[in-house]
Amino acid sequence: MAVKIRLARGGAKKRPYYRVVVADGRAPRDGKYIEKVGTHNPLLPKDHEDRIKLDVERIQYWLSKGAQPTDRVARFLDAAGILKRDARNNPNKGTPGAKALERIEEQKEKAEAKVAAAAEAEEAAKTAAEEAKAAAKAAAEAPAPVVEEAPAEEAPAAEAPAEAAAEETKE
Q1: 126-165 per-position pLDDT tens digit
Q2: How far is CA 169 from CA 69, 158, 163, in A?
Q3: Is residue 88 part of a domain?
Q4: What is the pTM of this model?
Q5: Which helix (DSSP H) or strand (DSSP E) does residue 61 occupy?
Q6: Within a domain: 90
């Protein structure tokens, strides 16, 4: 039988209160336990003396019998000086997951596309400005063009059918 020293939750909804218990590892969290060896009230301030109460003698007895504390209870026991807990290191804890990495990659691609589009627009604007300067310079250097008037034959030709129609009506 694997004996554990763990927390059993009590209290009301959103008002937790925990008993530190010695229980069979196969028993439910809030189920049957062998012995109550302390309490934990997480609603009290961290420096409050009633936040964690432990029966040190009984805990040492159960540890000598081979009981294994859970991680949270091991923290409490380490703070009380009963048990030395090894510091843990999880270097992958802050690493984003696969979907988050995909989203980051998509955001980078969009940002690169925006930068490229802005660079293209800027280049197009520079090219248009250079073309406008070149056209203005060419216009300044070239002599003013002479505007030729339309030939005189076209105007009377447009009037001729009207005059012909007027002569026909007179007759």
Answers
A1: 888 888 888 877 777 766 556 666 565 555 555 555 555 5
A2: 125, 18, 10
A3: no
A4: 0.54
A5: helix 56-64
A6: no
